[in-house]
């Protein structure tokens, strides 16, 4: 029970992180609210003395979010680029000018790709890091550790590079897909790449599939692969709740599975078709990840281009974009496509994954008849 002091305030002693502290309030309700907040702060690692650094606040911000292990790893990797510049600063020391200087430093960072020095972060990468910092600081404001968010007035950088959906994540044309697959037949990953194009699955979902997930005409998606401390593992939670779904298997996809069974039986024998065995294992054992597929695609694209044909580099995600575009072109209702792709929001399906060619626009416009 709270104790009423001579000055009229209610006082209650509680244990926070092993220490007894006194909490004061004008009413019992106010007292309960303050105690609840103190306990929440303690769970998130927020210090009551307001001496928290940006690194400390990041840890609290991450604890305050419900995320998968793979998302946490992505956050950690992204935050590293912020932490090395301002991680040790106290929250009260961070100003708008600090954020401007952080952006300038990120813009100057370089890395080496294909033997050339290039910018380490695209404008979108810098914007995503500033958005993360903004969210961290909003939590600090909410917990009364700082009086205002120093990032709130910082403008996003204008995009100067093409969107990924128009380059590496683009939908392949029929000609590009046929050319690529015809040159991929000798690859250990030929079957999984065909399977991605014929089902629209995310590469992590296909890599996590086991034979027990496959029925005659459907594949059950309930897990994905993720990278944790440099190792590819199975995450029991897919990307979102909408990602848990059944994906219909077209005749082409079923043929891929038949071919894959024959291949695995020939290499590994009957154990390779156990219910808990991966449908598409890595060639030397273990789980396939996007790095493996990216490397495989790059090698094949280079081989194609050596033969005086031209194919721009693309990522494994391009197979998903390609599936969506072909599906819409063949009359699949957008709502059905949304469920197959596992999107929570149909706008993602149509805005990001459906690629309309100039020929399709011309054909659609030619069918219009005006009565005036």
Number of strands: 9
Instruction: Quickly count the helices.
Output: 14
Indicate the CATH class of the largest domain. Mainly Alpha
**Spans where pLDDT lies below 50 across 5 or more residues:** none
Q: Structural class per helix/strand content?
A: mainly alpha
C-alpha Rg, in Å? 26 Å
State the shape.
elongated
Q: Structurally, how many domains make up the residues? A: 3
User: What is the arithmetic mean of pLDDT?
Assistant: 85
Task: Let me know the CATH homologous superfamily of the largest domain.
Answer: Intergrase catalytic core
> How far is the N terminus from the C terminus?
81 Å
The sequence of SSEs as H and E is EEEHHHHEEHHHHEEEEHHHHHH
CATH architecture descriptor text of the largest domain: Orthogonal Bundle
Bin the strand percentage: 5-15%
Strand order of the largest sheet: 1-2-3
Per CATH, what is the topology of the largest domain?
hpI Integrase, Chain A
What about the largest sheet?
Answer: 3 strands, antiparallel
Q: Which range best describes the helical content: under 10%, 10-25%, 25-40%, 40-55%, 55-70% or over 70%?
A: 40-55%
């Amino acid at each position: 029970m709270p104790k009423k002091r001579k000055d009229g305030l209610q006082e209650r002693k509680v244990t926070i992180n092993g220490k007894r502290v006194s909490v004061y309030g004008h009413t019992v309700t106010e007292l309960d609210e303050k105690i609840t907040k103190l306990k929440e702060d303690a769970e998130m690692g927020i210090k009551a003395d307001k001496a928290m650094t940006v690194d400390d606040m990041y840890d609290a911000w991450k604890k305050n979010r419900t995320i998968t292990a793979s998302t946490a790893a992505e956050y950690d990797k992204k935050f590293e680029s912020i932490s090395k510049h301002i991680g040790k600063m106290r929250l009260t020391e961070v100003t708008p000018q600090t954020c401007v200087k952080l952006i300038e430093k990120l813009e100057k960072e370089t890395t080496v790709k294909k033997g050339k020095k290039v910018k380490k972060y695209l404008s979108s990468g810098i914007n995503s890091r500033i958005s993360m910092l903004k969210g961290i600081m909003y939590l600090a404001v909410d917990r009364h550790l700082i009086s205002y968010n120093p990032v709130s007035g910082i403008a996003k950088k204008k995009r100067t590079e093409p969107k990924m959906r128009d380059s590496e994540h683009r939908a392949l044309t029929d000609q590009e897909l046929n050319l690529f697959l015809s040159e991929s037949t000798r690859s250990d990953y030929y079957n999984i790449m065909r399977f991605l194009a014929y089902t629209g699955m995310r590469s992590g979902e296909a890599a996590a599939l086991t034979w027990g997930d496959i029925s005659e005409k459907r594949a059950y998606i309930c897990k994905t692969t993720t990278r944790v401390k440099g190792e590819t593992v199975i995450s029991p939670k897919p990307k979102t709740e909408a990602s848990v779904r059944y994906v219909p298997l077209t005749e082409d996809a079923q043929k891929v599975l038949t071919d894959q069974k024959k291949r695995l039986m020939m290499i590994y024998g009957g154990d390779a078709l156990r219910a808990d065995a991966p449908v598409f294992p890595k060639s030397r054992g273990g789980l396939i990840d996007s790095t493996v597929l990216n490397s495989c695609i790059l090698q094949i694209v280079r081989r194609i281009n050596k033969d005086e044909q031209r194919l721009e580099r693309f990522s494994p995600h391009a197979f998903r974009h390609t599936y969506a575009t072909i599906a819409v072109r063949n009359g699949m209702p957008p709502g059905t496509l949304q469920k197959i792709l596992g999107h929570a929001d149909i706008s993602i399906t149509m805005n990001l994954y459906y690629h309309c060619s100039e020929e399709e626009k011309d054909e659609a416009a030619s069918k219009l008849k005006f009565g005036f």
